[in-house]
UniProtKB/TrEMBL annotation:
Residue spans crossing the bilayer: 439-462
Keywords: Membrane, Signal, Transmembrane, Transmembrane helix
PANTHER family: BATD (PTHR40940:SF2), PROTEIN BATD-RELATED (PTHR40940)
Lineage top rank: taxon: Bacteria
InterPro entries: BatD
Full protein name: Protein BatD
Pfam families reported for this sequence: BatD
Signal peptide: 1-20
Keyword match ATP-binding: no
Amino acid sequence: MKLRIIILSFFLAISTISVAQVKFEAKASKNKLGVNERLRVDFEMNKDGDNFNPPSFKGFTVVGGPNQAVSNSWINGKRTYSKTYSYFLAPTSRGKFTISQAEITIDDDIYKTTPIQVEVTSAVETPTDGNNSDFVASENLHLVAEISDSNPFLNEAITVVYKLYVSPLVSVSNWREMDSPVYSDFWSQNIDIRQLKIESGEYQGEPYRFVVLRKTILYPQKTGELEIQPLALSVSVDVPSERRDIFGGRLYTTVDKTVTAGKRDINVKPLPLANKPANFTGAVGDFDFEISASKTKLAATESLTLKVQVSGKGNLKLFDLPKLEVPSSIELYEPERIENVRTDLNGTQGSIADTYTVVPNQKGNFPIPALSFSYFDLSSKSYKTINTEEILLEVSSAPANSSFSAGNTINKLPVEATGKQFEYIKLSTNLRPINSGPFLGSALFWTLLSLPIAVVFLGIVLGKKRRELTNDVQGKKIKKANRLAKKYLSEAKNNLGDQKAFYIALERALHNYLKAKLHIQTNEMSKDKIDVLLQDRKVDPATNKEFISLIETCEFARYAPSSSVTMNQDYEKAAATISALDKQL
């Protein structure tokens, strides 16, 4: 009996400890608010769960949320986890209301929050949450990753398009990339976006403006559950405030928000094993295959080219072409790879080819064996094989003057003397002596004697001046920045106040600086190419990123409202960035 009590007590203690480890609670931003204010309710847990079920929020209207935030950290070897669902509520009337229990399943157990009592009073004179700039920015700015297919085959192309949605209630004045997406286990290629374009669309049924920030083609290289890490941006959002200027125009408040597209999971299916050809090397798509010869009738020792080519749409860069085989009496050189492909949202398309140089050494008829190429066709979800025809080379005898003629003898032409090969030798001269006076006391003597003294004196003066200039580091930086700013940014400075003209001039100044400094043409260059170019010149990554950010700001700000303060900040930032870039280049 005593043993049974001890065992029950032990299991009860274990269960009590495990229950105590799970925390799930509700928190309200306030317990008393005006009918014209907003209430924030957070449901927080310290362990991830499933089947989250929020309360009905009787007496309130959900105006925002659920917003999800996850925090996961390790401190001194101890893991701390937190996950929060946030809702923004607007009262429907005055009175006392109860926010009932939320439910979630954690480790097959159901946990509930404690109800919260909230009192709604009459309207207050100055709402605190209803016009909160941070809240308004959060509800009117969204970063979305649109994936063409989340369940592709191995080596099937999928596209990821990142769009930034902005509500008409706010505007974006600037943004920069904080964290780039990671495509582990994918072959990826970005599609150049030459200029950002503002478009109209819908987000969750509401009218929004959006801009496409990035387009990427992905070819999965593994099967199973693959993960795409999110893109994160820091965005400066101009939110309208209740204040107005002397002309009655609404004043804007700038809020810095961090938005992320969220992690995405891709389930990659393996290619079928049934009926898989033995010569299959991983080609997936829709292809044509052919072998062509530059000529089929030639003399021995003459050369010709044989081209093995695959064309069509699919993973053109991710498989091997069939190898050409020739008879032993034909000399075959290593092939030259020729790629003519382009990548867009429809995938990679074009052609790849191996071009062989072939030289027959003997007379006769020589067959080039047929080749076969296999690929997986996505439309029929089956393997297809294309076979070429045999190519017959008709080789005649070698020309008489060829180095490969009978006996492998080489006919050498005799060298004929013209009788003029020694014309450059002069047979007569016209020499005369040089008459000169005594060197001591001459003008040249005194010049050479005084020259070292003059050089020492000049070196002292120049050294002193150089030390003065070296010590004035800050002055040099200011002068250099002002000189570069005046040279390249004068037009932009003259257009401060005119948003569109200012950002057009600022973007032109940035391109003109690169054109003058690196001796390149930037009119047709994308931001990615400029980024690579600056990396090749060993430019500091922070300066490089700031320069690209300025170009993106110019493209984006021409279509969105911007304050004079923001334009002045962008002008100062451009001057500082050009100065820093000039120093490194």
